[in-house]
Q: What sequence folds into this?
């Protein structure tokens, strides 16, 4: 008799152990199936792999309106990160309620996420998996890349906080583990310093001197990384620099009657971002004021179109002529306004007698036919900020994670009008439970009627009991 | 029948506990925006703004912009009031209703993205944010300049 | 046996009362959830889990405590059933009664689907979660019910245990370190979020199944100790 | 009709905490026999029966029903037993038919024979025509019958009836008594009662429990015969003298003086005439003599110490 009891306890103990093991295993590797429409809440395999490399405390602060649905979604997404790696700690901070905190972190927009790891900081432009994982990847790389910004040809200044300045861009760079450094190749020995991970030519207002062009050419040939933002309005001709890499500058003014900001056809909203290039990732539209056209030699497989305007757009080669309508001489669109070249080649060098080394040299080039979209006045419009950050990251090999990024849950509006509220309450609070109770009462009545037929042996309800029943009714 | 009755009590206690804490991960609906100053413009004899020793009375057009005054957000300040530009306040807005005690509001600095301005009742516990566009022209009357939204 | 228990619950004034209260509450929660002006139901499912825990506590009272009070347990335990069958039958009975209540709540998402365009994924997983949690809560309730012959002790005991588990998870948010991890894991609170969002995570499913198994084991041990 | 199965308890002991409810009870019930289980309240009758039906687990000892050991196959034991608990209560909200159907399903009766079995059990328990009545509205006697029908529904080899007539009115009591007598002809029946008359009517053998111990397991007749006699002599004059006088009479085991009454117990040889002669010859007047010899009651009272 005692034996079977002992056996039961043993079985219970075994089952308990199995439960603990099972739960620990499930906690450690937690595969999940996402059935939500946008698959908003699953972390990709890439993120999972990436997170195994986090081995120090990693703090994530999402600046969001507290208590709103975005904050709830962000909390859930960030909790998924923490589940995968317990070094990760996260919080959601309302920048309105915590202006000091927002200032300390240099927050300028809602939904900014700040990630800190081993004394370094990176911001993610949105609370979405792709952005956060990319930011973590950058933190894990652990370097701060020097980005050299060219001056000397009338480019806007990184320290200018006016609408035409680039101070916001400078902050953006430093917040993403880049150290911006200005260089002037118009003076002295024109050569790009080896420390530069990338060189940015952000809107020159006059033609570059030949020495500078030569320096940049040689830099590009040696595996350089260059971004050129220019416009026909500035009167520069970047073609000598660009054409060897399959990109040509057409100039003129692109007008887009179909997609433009307000009534100004030259304030173009770019929505065709067809490239798989990481520069386009997460960017659905751009605002380019007064863009110029580019020509892309697509026969060269290394060149890709980053952005082009709508089919209704066209290039007006001579904007000063007065008429903005499509006329003779205008080039019909769609017009390429941003392009990238990625050329790599194997270089064999002789390091000594009998010793040869082989390495891959990779030139990357981003060209945009507009030189004002990244200034303080436009950086936060549409996807401009993201596009610029992507471009710098791509140029410096800080590729973003190419993941099937999760999207936020879609907007499913259902205005709760008082009438609807009344209806819902009526059905759920009164009709359904009421129907249930009526059914129960009905059944009780039927049963009672059946019992009415006198049967021997049944007690007559006592008067006391009868009274109680009546009260219940 | 008293047993189920007592059980309802247990259930009610559970529900009270439920009500006191919200479920995890739900999408809480944001509360409706709090009304800072109720009443239509016609109900006020005068609305005045003051900053330091400067004082001004709002024109009817400006009163239309701030009466009624509805906040975008309400919260208990987690940081010192100085962070909100409210210690000391940059300006004070006074509503004098026709026949009634005047209501005052303290106006502070802009929020992190300059789209809103912090506001509180004198001696109040809660802070509110009000759209900067509503208060900027009023503050300009007394020379308080709030940076334009970026 | 489970069928008899389900019938006995849903044909009694007690069961109908609890069920109707539950449904009415579900309706109120639905309207509160829809205040966000979005056709999302996660804010409805979330508190519903707590309500289901309470309903499980109230229903599970019928399983053993009530039978012991009336003495019918003596007949039942002398039927040619294994103890495992007895426990399984009781838990199935309580969970079955819960499932009926849950099935009626389908009215709520249906109405939302009529007037709006909710994402069906989270609704599906929400119900999967509710069913799993219902079975788990029911088995915990049955275990408590088996341990006592008192109606009131069983109802308040199991709701206290379930609510303590739930709010343990809420409290865990304020803690840190290993304690927080363990406490949070043990609480159903941490395991419902995925279901609300439309994700079925193995850990969550394993957790609720484990809780159900713990309930079964506890019931068996309690019955054994009381023999 | 089944022939019944032998029920055997060997050295069965059960403790509740520190209290020993049943201690080292061994008894056998033969097929076709109605064994009465007698004892005052709290003697361990119900506990013994509950162990037999598997509601309680014995701390030590063995229980066997037919060829099945309860420790090895408790379900097999329960399958052979029909049990009427002391407090027989079914689900008040169910009708008699529903409840018996439920029991039949739990008993795994095949569907085709279920209705027949329920009909027979209801007829046996005297419930004919009451199928649609809700149990909650039945009187106590009828509820007891429902309990009995429930115990009979699967036509068990062994019936365990705990106080089957408790709470019944005299007429119902007779009905149930007749039913048990009828059932006992073909089955093994273990019946507990604290009513001596019931046991003497129904049982050939009785087991007497007192304070958890088995104090007798005998045929009723043997037990009664062995009980010997107990006589009460009301005397006028000196009771102690009378007591002294009767002490020497053959067959006397004990003499007790209670005021003017001398209580004499003795074995089968004890004769009233001898006692009377002894009292009178001692010079004490004998007013009344009452004999209680030869009854089960006497034996019971002797076995069960107050």
A:
């Amino acid at each position: 008799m005692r034996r079977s009891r002992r056996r039961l306890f043993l079985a219970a103990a075994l089952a308990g152990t199995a439960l603990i093991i099972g739960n620990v295993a499930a906690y450690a590797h937690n595969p999940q199936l996402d059935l939500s429409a946008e698959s908003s809440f699953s972390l990709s395999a890439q993120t999972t792999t990436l997170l195994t490399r986090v081995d120090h405390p990693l703090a994530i602060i999402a600046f969001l309106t507290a208590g709103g649905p975005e904050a709830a979604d962000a909390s859930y997404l960030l909790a998924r990160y923490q589940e995968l790696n317990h070094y990760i700690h996260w919080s959601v901070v309302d920048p309105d309620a915590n202006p000091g905190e927002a200032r300390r972190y240099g927050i300028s927009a809602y939904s900014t996420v700040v990630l800190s790891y081993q004394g370094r900081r990176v911001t993610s432009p949105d609370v979405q998996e792709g952005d956060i994982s990319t930011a973590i990847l950058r933190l894990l790389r652990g370097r701060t890349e020097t980005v050299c910004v060219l001056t000397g040809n009338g480019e806007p200044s990184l320290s200018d906080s006016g609408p035409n300045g680039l101070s916001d861009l400078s902050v953006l760079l430093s917040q993403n583990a880049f150290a911006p450094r200005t260089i002037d190749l118009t003076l002295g020995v024109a050569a790009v310093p080896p420390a530069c991970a990338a060189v940015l030519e952000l809107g020159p207002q006059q033609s570059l001197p030949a020495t500078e062009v030569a320096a940049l050419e040689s830099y590009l040939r040696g595996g350089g990384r260059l971004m050129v933002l220019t416009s026909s309005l500035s009167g520069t001709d970047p073609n000598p620099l660009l054409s060897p890499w399959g990109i040509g500058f057409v100039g003129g003014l692109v007008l887009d009657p179909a997609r433009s900001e307000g009534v100004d056809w030259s304030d173009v909203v770019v929505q065709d971002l067809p490239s798989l290039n990481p520069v386009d990732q997460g960017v659905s539209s751009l605002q380019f004021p007064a863009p110029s056209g580019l020509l892309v030699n697509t026969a060269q497989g290394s060149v890709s179109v980053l952005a082009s305007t709508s089919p209704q757009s066209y290039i007006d080669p001579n904007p000063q002529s007065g008429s903005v309508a499509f006329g003779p001489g205008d080039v019909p669109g769609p017009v390429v306004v941003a392009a990238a070249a990625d050329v790599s080649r194997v270089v064999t060098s002789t390091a000594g007698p009998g010793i040869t080394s082989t390495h891959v040299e990779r030139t990357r080039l981003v060209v945009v036919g507009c030189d004002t979209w990244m200034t303080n006045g436009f950086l936060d419009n549409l996807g401009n900020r993201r596009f610029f950050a992507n471009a710098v990251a791509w140029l410096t090999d800080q590729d973003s994670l190419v993941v099937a990024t999760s999207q936020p849950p879609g907007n499913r509006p259902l205005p709760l009008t008082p009438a609807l509220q009344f209806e819902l309450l009526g059905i759920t609070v009164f009709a359904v439970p009421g129907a249930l109770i009526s059914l129960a009462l009905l059944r009780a009545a039927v049963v009672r009627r059946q019992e009415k037929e006198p049967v021997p042996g049944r007690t007559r309800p006592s008067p006391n009991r009868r009274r109680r029943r009546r009260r219940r009714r | 029948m008293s047993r189920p009755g007592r059980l309802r009590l247990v259930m009610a206690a559970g529900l009270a506990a439920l009500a006191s804490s919200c479920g995890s991960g739900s999408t809480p609906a944001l509360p409706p925006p709090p009304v800072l100053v109720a009443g239509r413009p016609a109900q006020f004899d005068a609305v005045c703004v003051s900053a330091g020793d400067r004082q001004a009375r709002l024109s009817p057009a400006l009163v239309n912009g701030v009466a009624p005054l509805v906040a975008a957000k309400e919260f208990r300040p987690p940081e010192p009031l100085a962070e909100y530009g409210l210690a000391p306040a940059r300006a004070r807005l006074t509503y004098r209703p026709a026949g009634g005690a005047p209501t005052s509001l303290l106006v502070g600095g802009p929020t992190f993205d300059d789209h809103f301005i912090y506001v509180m009742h004198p001696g109040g516990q809660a802070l509110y944010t009000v759209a900067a566009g509503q208060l900027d022209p009023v503050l300009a009357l007394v020379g308080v300049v709030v940076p334009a939204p970026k | 046996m489970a069928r008899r228990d389900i019938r006995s619950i849903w044909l009694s004034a007690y069961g109908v009362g609890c069920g109707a209260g539950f449904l009415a509450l579900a309706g109120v929660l639905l309207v509160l959830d829809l205040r966000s002006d979005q056709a999302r139901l996660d804010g409805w499912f979330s508190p519903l889990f707590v309500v289901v825990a309470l309903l499980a506590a109230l229903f599970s009272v019928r399983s053993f405590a009530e039978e012991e009070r009336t003495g019918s347990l003596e007949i039942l335990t002398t039927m040619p059933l294994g103890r495992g069958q007895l426990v399984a039958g009781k838990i199935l009975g309580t969970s079955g009664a819960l499932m009926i209540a849950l099935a009626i709540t389908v009215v709520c998402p249906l109405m939302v689907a009529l007037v709006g365009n909710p994402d069906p994924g989270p609704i599906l997983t929400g119900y999967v979660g509710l069913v799993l949690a219902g079975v788990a809560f029911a088995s915990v309730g049955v275990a408590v019910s088996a341990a006592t012959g008192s109606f009131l002790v069983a109802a308040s005991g199991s709701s206290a245990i379930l609510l303590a588990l739930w709010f343990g998870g809420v409290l865990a948010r304020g803690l840190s370190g290993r304690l927080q991890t363990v406490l949070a894991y043990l609480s159903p609170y941490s395991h419902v979020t995925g279901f609300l969002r439309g994700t079925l995570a193995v850990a969550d499913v394993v957790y609720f199944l484990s809780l159900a198994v713990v309930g079964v084991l506890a019931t068996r041990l309690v019955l054994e100790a009381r023999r | 009709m089944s022939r019944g199965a032998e029920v055997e308890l060997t050295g069965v002991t059960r403790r509740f905490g520190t209290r020993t409810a049943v201690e080292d009870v061994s008894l056998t019930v033969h097929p076709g026999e109605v064994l009465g289980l007698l004892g005052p309240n709290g003697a361990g009758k119900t506990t013994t029966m509950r162990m037999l039906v598997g509601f309680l687990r014995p701390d030590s000892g063995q229980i066997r029903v037919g060829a099945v050991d309860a420790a090895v196959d408790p379900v097999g034991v329960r399958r052979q037993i029909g049990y009427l608990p002391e407090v027989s209560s079914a689900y008040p909200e169910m009708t008699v038919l529903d409840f018996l159907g439920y029991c039949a399903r739990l008993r795994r009766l095949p569907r085709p024979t279920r209705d027949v079995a329920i009909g027979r059990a209801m007829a046996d328990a005297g419930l004919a025509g009451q199928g649609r009545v809700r149990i909650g509205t039945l009187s106590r006697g009828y509820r007891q019958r429902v309990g009995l029908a429930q115990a009979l529904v699967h036509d068990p080899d062994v019936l365990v009836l705990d106080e089957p007539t408790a709470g019944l009115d005299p007429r119902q009591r007779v009905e149930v008594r007749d039913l048990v007598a009828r059932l006992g002809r073909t089955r093994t029946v273990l019946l507990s009662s604290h009513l001596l008359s019931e046991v003497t009517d129904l049982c050939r053998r009785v087991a007497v429990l007192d304070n958890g111990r088995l104090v007798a397991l005998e045929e009723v007749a043997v037990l009664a015969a062995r009980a010997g006699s107990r006589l009460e002599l009301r005397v006028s004059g000196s009771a102690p003298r009378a007591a002294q006088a009767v002490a020497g009479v053959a067959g006397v085991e004990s003499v007790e003086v209670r005021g003017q009454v001398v209580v004499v117990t003795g074995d089968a040889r004890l004769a009233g005439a001898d006692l009377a002669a002894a009292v009178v010859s001692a010079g004490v007047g004998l007013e009344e003599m009452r004999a209680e010899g030869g009854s089960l009651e006497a034996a019971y009272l002797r076995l069960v110490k107050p």
Q: What stands out?
A: Chain C has a mean pLDDT of 84. The interface with chain B takes residues 13-14, 17-18, 21, 25, 32-33, 35-38, 40, 42-43, 45-51, 54, 57-58, 61, 151-152, 155-156, 159, 163, 167, 169-170, 189-190, 192-193, 196-197 of chain C (CB under 8 Å).
